[in-house]
Amino acid sequence: MNKIIALLTTLTCCALAEDKPKPTRVVPYKETPQGELHLHLFNPVQHNAQAQRPAIVFFFGGGWNSGTPSQFYPQAAHLASRGMVAICAEYRTKKQHGTDPRACVMDAKSAMRWVRRNAGKLGIDPNRIAAGGGSAGGHLAAATATVTEFNEPDENTSVSCVPQALALFNPVFDNSEKGYGHDRVKDYWQDFSPMHNLKKGAPPTIVFLGTKDDLIPVATAQEYKKIMQANGDRCDLHLYPDQAHGFFNKAKYNETLNETDKFFVSLKWLEPANKK
């Protein structure tokens, strides 16, 4: 009986692995002292370089310590099926590359600049590029829109890294003493923390957070929204009762994905899902 159970478990895992979305292609975007970094692209069906489609770049979570671009493969595959070019970015982490959180922000900015610089080759509208991410990846997405420091010294900063929209899943907003990761970034937290670098004109933002998140307090997200609204900018905050950190890829995957879809419809980046 135990052998049968083990066999069924193996077959189930294999099936799930086969069902996992796969990127259309993987391309290098940056050479670092720790190795080459890549972007995992999901293209819509019959996509071509003349398409001028909206795009989104996703950054995985993992506390700037670890993680993999495949975390956002499901969301990327869905948005590609809806007409966006969806991209999952690699970036340097402490565990794999021995780097600190500043390198993560540098890589996120480099990824956004590379996509915008190569938009014509990728079939992307350079004026409709969003950034998204979860947890520390949400921090990176927000940082590309708010943080002015931590650029690669040899990079052409005349190409903007700022996205035109943000989709943030239990994101790290606050790196102050009362926020997340302060002990690791305390020497430069004021330049590193998205909440403390918000300015008028921030891109329209959608935020997902569970009320039982033990890393990101609800009050932090509410304060972020308050600042954005005071600046006259859009911030849609969706709170999910009794959900913990990382809920968006678990119990509430469909709900958060549907709201993300509707957000891009509201920006007129996508057609309504039920449109004939």
Automatic annotation (TrEMBL):
Any Pfam family the entry gives: BD-FAE
Domain BD-FAE-like: 47-225
Superkingdom of the organism of origin: Bacteria
InterPro entries assigned to the protein according to its UniProt record, in alphabetical order: AB_hydrolase_fold, BD-FAE-like_dom, GDXG_lipolytic_enzyme
Single GO term (MF): triacylglycerol lipase activity
Key words of the record: Hydrolase
PANTHER family: AB HYDROLASE SUPERFAMILY PROTEIN C4A8.06C, ACETYL-HYDROLASE LIPR-RELATED
Family assignment from sequence similarity: Belongs to the 'GDXG' lipolytic enzyme family.
Identification of the protein by name: Carboxylesterase NlhH
Organism of provenance: Pontiella desulfatans
